[in-house]
């Protein structure tokens, strides 16, 4: 734990950095702005067999696939919660042991910018000006 001495320049720098980082995270979350990079356009892989109507078999197959999706997604969320929590706790504990508590806490707001970058890179989401400006403000806060 640190003592809060407002006369110290390091304490004031830490407070100012925290305020700037929080404001950058808020810009990422609350301000969208114009689109910088558009999402990748994907062509539909399944063509419609019956443009004006559908058969009974299509409804049955669609219902079964929808039920399977709900079952598998719920199992995936459970597994992701168990293993993701364990892995995150392990990484945080290791970082706490190596660098100390300030190092761990300082990367927590940066995870918002990292998640935005990963969604653009891996998921093909659109990149907006608010995300870039917010990430720059958040990084300046560090």
From TrEMBL:
Keyword Lipoprotein: no
PANTHER family: WAT1-RELATED PROTEIN (PTHR31218)
Example of a GO cellular component annotation carried by this entry: membrane
The keyword Calcium appears for this protein: no
UniProtKB keywords: Membrane, Transmembrane, Transmembrane helix
Transmembrane intervals: 12-31, 59-79, 112-138
Protein name: WAT1-related protein
One MF term in the entry's GO annotations: transmembrane transporter activity
């Amino acid at each position: 734990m640190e003592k809060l001495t407002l006369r110290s320049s390091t304490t004031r720098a830490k407070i100012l950095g925290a305020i700037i980082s929080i404001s950058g995270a808020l810009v990422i979350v609350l301000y969208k702005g114009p689109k910088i990079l558009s999402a990748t356009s994907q062509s539909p892989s399944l063509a419609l067999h019956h443009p004006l109507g559908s058969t009974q078999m299509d409804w049955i197959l669609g219902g079964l696939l929808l039920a399977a999706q709900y079952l598998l997604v719920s199992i995936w969320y459970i597994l992701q919660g168990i293993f993701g929590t364990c892995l995150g706790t392990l990484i945080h504990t290791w970082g706490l042991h190596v660098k100390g508590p300030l190092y761990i806490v300082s990367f927590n707001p940066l995870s918002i910018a990292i998640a935005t970058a990963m969604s653009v890179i891996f998921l093909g989401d659109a990149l907006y000006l608010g995300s870039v400006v917010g990430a720059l403000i958040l990084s300046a806060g560090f």
